[in-house]
Design brief:
Two copies of one chain form a homodimer. With 502 residues, chain A is an alpha/beta fold. Chain A has two domains: 236 residues, P-loop containing nucleotide triphosphate hydrolases (Rossmann fold, 3-Layer(aba) Sandwich), CATH 3.40.50; 236 residues, Rossmann fold (3-Layer(aba) Sandwich), CATH 3.40.50. In chain A, 52% of the residues lie in helices and 12% in strands. Chain A has 21 helices and ten strands. A five-stranded parallel beta sheet of chain A has the order 2-3-1-4-5, sandwiched between helices. In chain A, strands 7-8-6-9-10 form a five-stranded parallel beta sheet, sandwiched between helices. Chain A is elongated and about 85 Å long. In chain A, 39% of the residues are buried. Chains A and B meet through helix 1, helix 2, strand 2, helix 12 and helix 13 of A and helix 1, helix 2, strand 2, helix 12 and helix 13 of B.
């Protein structure tokens, strides 16, 4: 795979100078155009030590305007990073639309090195690469331009390069003991690199292999590929936006009878008498307090997702759930319209950024499922966007669960009649009127479309590791107890049963 | 001070129920009004263990809508928190405008406990309280409503309370060994509390002492004070916005001759010949690379602030400065218009949130000085706002320096003629035209006003721990070398001299 990068390619100084000024001009004007574009540029640098990754990153910063470039490099994770899933540290550094992110020793680094040093088995290694591909695909699907450069050096060239660097007093700090240790594993490293590149080089985020021996050559190779990539992507995105709209639906498409959904199968008469409710709620809350306390001590985080119809009782249930818990242990994370910072990132970014530290109970009041509910029904997301969201969401949730989090998702269900009754009640109750907006009435008109969206959502995202819990919520008492008891059970499954003294 | 909170005040259950429903309604409607207000509400809970701080916070979350309430409680700082100044963890949790933040075991906690346990001397303790007051004053000046509740229990009542909690299987987890340890220091704790309250209770963030023995009484006391505070503050802010505008300046005020400023005293003929420049730049950069490397290893962070005229060469200087440095060690942080999230916080929030981890070189390309430069000159900040900003900025910088950061501030100065020359050059150089905007020409018209603002800025914020470096930048070569050499010197002062092998 790397023979083509050991050809001894060189660019004479005068050619470099002549070309460089042209490419530089080009990059600067592309960067200006990019600032108004609707996508970020993500550039990954990996490869052989000494092949000029750092120097190339510096050159990009020197040639372009560093104000719209984010250079990110990674060492050992901090404790705050360790308390979240692996990719959290990369999500928090992703460049917003219009910006360029340069990533060094990033998501490829640890998987490759672990495999080189035989810390990880091939199984684990391939699983890690799968994760990387899912991550890159998700960003690319969202419009990101991803360019990956593998900076290569032959074995002899690497040795020579490390020695030259060491001999230069201004550069010697660049060479560490780890570099020499890695050098001794050169052949194995190249094997693993080949596997990595062939597995992750297809699709929307291809690798460019660059011969790293001659600085002028490698600089021109990377910078011209960067310019080329940005130019093509700008053109492709412009063309995409110019394509024709979806045809409007035919009348008969809207007149089809609504298919039966999982929601139709719920027993909506389930209810709890007041006396029974008070007793059961008290018991469930006491148990929950103990479980949450124990989860906090064990560093086990819990993610609760609440979705449901307007007026289905999400807020009231959340308040009953949190009452009596140690305020240090939980946080309600409400999601309405995204902020402008959030809009300039992938739609999952705002959920990643809100992941709390280890041991916390995170309560998402509305969530990433907005993508396949409101954004689908209201047309804020295009069909291809919300359709691929199921897989993206499953990936995301798998990362949470793999990290050891307990994840429970509730759909709070009420019947259409019950919703009407509650809307009317809100209208007439002074301290509830603010809850009822015109939007609620508009959403109600789209009940059937939402019901189909919910059915699809449950079908495609109720996975073994993250099942949906459908809550019959016509009776608030029943719903509240069911939710709290379910959370207790899930925590028990993870942490073991707690005996509540009564 | 606390006798009035040991009276055995009680509210009978039936009175509580009657009043509670009224207050609750009131709070809910106030919370709705608050959502559109231009200030956040910051509620601090402190006091005797067992006096109901946690329960009261829970009750507020139960009675109001938790979606616009942020409950924050603090334990030991994480390593990411330890790598920033003390108040960073509080800044990152501050509620945006329209929201309520409930703070438990927050900025009062450690200073009080350290003093109770005689870990800190009175000197240190008072210094910490001064910091707290500056912090609260800054937020209050920005419009925040700050309410502080001291929840009190007499000595006997505390003992009784801890025993009762321990006996209740559902509550016993609330009582820790630390609580009993603290109980044995009750008298000393009360002494320190008195000092704390009397010192920090004046001005814009007063304390309310609440007798904590009877839950109905203390709940009503806190919640009615909360409602009252929000109502008054909403009215006060509305009245403030309705007050008359500043009178327009008289013509003669604008016709005054411009007073002489520190900038007039600079020797703008300073320059470096090309050959000399290349040599000196090379040396300075080599030294900087070593110093930055050493700072990284020692965990010493460096903050460089770049301010200056349009076209003064900030960008070019920053690029020369960073070229050749390890990309993992530095980050350019450019600041233009704030995002909507940033606009919903205090103006310093966006600088706090951008503080990087220990050992990094942070390069602020424009900074918090925007408050006293562009915001002052363009009238984005009212006179009382930019005038108090000098003190706020000095406090902020003192926190950075106290934390061990190296802070250097550069004003890049060019003459008005030189700026014109550079504007013309930008107009004529294809890859520089984008740099020149209409705004640059508009700013140029206000040269004199800016010059006065710069003079005031230097006068009021060039402190011993954070002096301004005025850079004569008519000659780019001279300016670049001066900046890089200055950074080297400041790092040497901190880290000791490095011998560069030549």
């Amino acid at each position: 795979m790397f023979q083509t990068a050991e050809l001894g390619q060189k660019v004479p100084r005068e050619d470099f100078d002549r070309l460089a000024s042209k490419i530089r001009l080009d990059l600067l004007s592309l960067q200006q155009e990019l600032r108004n574009a609707d996508f970020p540029v993500i550039v990954v640098f990996a490869g052989v030590d000494g092949a000029g990754k750092g120097e190339t990153v510096n050159l990009i910063n020197e040639w372009m305007d560093p104000r719209w470039i984010l250079t990110c490099a990674y060492g050992d994770p901090s404790d705050e990073e360790n308390e979240r899933p692996l990719f959290w540290r990369y999500w928090r550094d992703l460049p917003p639309k219009g910006h360029i992110g340069l990533f060094l020793s990033c998501w490829y680094s640890q998987p490759v090195l672990d495999h080189v040093h035989e810390v990880s088995t091939p199984d684990v290694f391939y699983r890690q690469l799968d994760h990387i591909m899912a991550f890159e695909k998700m960003l690319a699907d969202d419009g990101a331009l991803i360019l990956k450069f593998w900076m290569h050096l032959g074995k002899k060239a690497q040795k020579q390069r490390l020695k030259t660097l060491e001999a230069d007093p201004l550069q010697s700090w660049r060479v560490t003991k780890a570099d020499w240790r890695n050098y001794r594993l050169y052949d194995r490293f190249i094997d693993v690199a080949e596997q990595t590149l062939s597995r992750t080089g297809t699709g929307p985020a291809p690798w460019t292999i660059v011969e790293g021996e001659d600085p002028p050559y490698r600089s021109l190779a990377v910078l011209s590929a960067l310019a080329d990539g940005i130019r093509r992507h700008l053109a492709a995105r412009a063309a995409m936006h110019a394509t024709v709209e979806d045809p409007p639906p035919q009348p008969w498409q809207n007149e089809q009878p609504r298919p039966m959904t999982v929601l139709d199968k719920l027993d909506m008469t389930l209810a709890l008498e007041k006396m029974d409710y008070v007793q059961k709620l008290r018991e469930a809350r006491a148990e929950l307090a103990l479980m949450v306390q124990r989860a906090r001590e064990s560093g086990v985080s819990t993610v609760l997702v609440f979705e449901g119809w307007d007026a289905a009782g999400k807020g009231g249930t959340i308040r009953r759930l949190t009452a009596g818990l140690d305020a240090r242990s939980w946080r309600v994370l409400p999601f309405a319209a995204p902020t402008d910072e959030e809009r300039s990132h992938h739609y999952l970014w705002r959920f990643w950024r809100n992941l709390q530290r280890a041991g916390r109970l995170m309560i998402f009041d509305r969530s990433w499922y907005g993508r396949v509910l409101v954004e689908r029904v209201e047309g804020y997301a295009r069909p291809e966007e919300w359709m691929r969201a199921y897989a993206e969401i499953n990936d995301f949730e798998e990362e949470l669960v793999d990290h050891g989090m307990v994840l429970v998702k509730f759909w709070m269900h009420i019947t259409k009649d019950e919703q009407l009754r509650r809307f009317e009640e809100r209208k007439d109750t002074p301290y509830k009127t603010w809850k009822l907006t015109d939007e609620d009435w508009r959403n109600r008109e789209k009940w059937d479309e939402y019901q189909i969206a919910v059915n699809d959502m449950v079908e495609r995202t109720s996975t073994r590791h993250a099942p949906w819990v459908l809550v019959e919520a016509n009776d608030k008492n029943y719903a509240r107890v069911k939710v709290i008891r379910t959370v207790c059970e899930k925590l028990e499954q993870r942490l073991g049963k707690v005996l509540v003294r009564r």
